[in-house]
C-alpha cells in the first residue's frame, strides 16, 4: 500500500521509464512531491522500479495487482499513469519477419495498453483525487508505413481505445488522453535509421530528419506531454504535440 505523506501527494506510473521519452518524463515530473514508479524490464532511470515485461501477459496480472495494492486507501492529490512502452521491431513486411518477435510486438503495442489501461481505471475507480491516464501514440496511428505493421496497428488501436474509454468516463472520472510526441531523438529512431530500405522503404525520410536537425529532444517531448495535464482537453482526446 502506498505510504502517502506530505512529501508524496502524487503517485505516478510511467511504463518504459528507463530510457528515452519515458526517462525524460520521469525526470521532469512537475510535482515536487511525486513518487514516480517505472514499469519496465530493466529499470535504471531516476524512478522507483517495478520490474515487468509488458509483452508478457503473466506480467500484466502482476502490474494489475501492483496498482491495486498501491492504491488501496490512497488519499493523495493525484494519480497518473503514462503508458509509454512500445517497440518498433521487428521492422519488415509482415509476411517476412520473425513470427515470435512479431507476436511479442503485437502484445506490447496493441494489447498491453488496453489491458493495463483497464487495470488502472479499475484500481482508481473509487478515488476522488485527480486521475490521469495518458497513452503515448504516434503519427503512425494515422499514416501507414510499409514495414511497421505491428507498430502502426498498435498505435491506431491505442487511439481508438482512448476515444472510446474517454467517452465512457463520468464528469468526475479519470481523464484519458493519447499523445503523439512527434519524431523524437531516441534509441528507437537510431534503430529506424539503420534499417535496410528493403525492410523499411521510408528509411531515407527519417535519416533526413536527423541530418536536418528536425528531431525533437526527449526533454522537450516530456515537457509537452506533462503540459497536457493542465489543459482543458475533452476526455478521449488524441493530441499531436506538433499541432498544439
UniProtKB/TrEMBL annotation:
One of the GO BP terms on file: tetrahydrobiopterin biosynthetic process
A Pfam family that the UniProt record links to this protein: adh_short
Domain of life: Bacteria
Family named by the database record: Belongs to the short-chain dehydrogenases/reductases (SDR) family.
InterPro entries per record: Biopterin_syn/organic_redct, NAD(P)-bd_dom_sf, Sc_DH/Rdtase_CS, SDR_fam
GO MF terms held by the record: sepiapterin reductase (NADP+) activity
Span of the signal peptide: 1-19
SUPFAM superfamilies linked: NAD(P)-binding Rossmann-fold domains
Listed GO CC annotations: cytoplasm
Record-given protein name: SDR family NAD(P)-dependent oxidoreductase
UniProt subcellular location: Cytoplasm
Keywords, sorted A to Z: Cytoplasm, NADP, Oxidoreductase, Signal
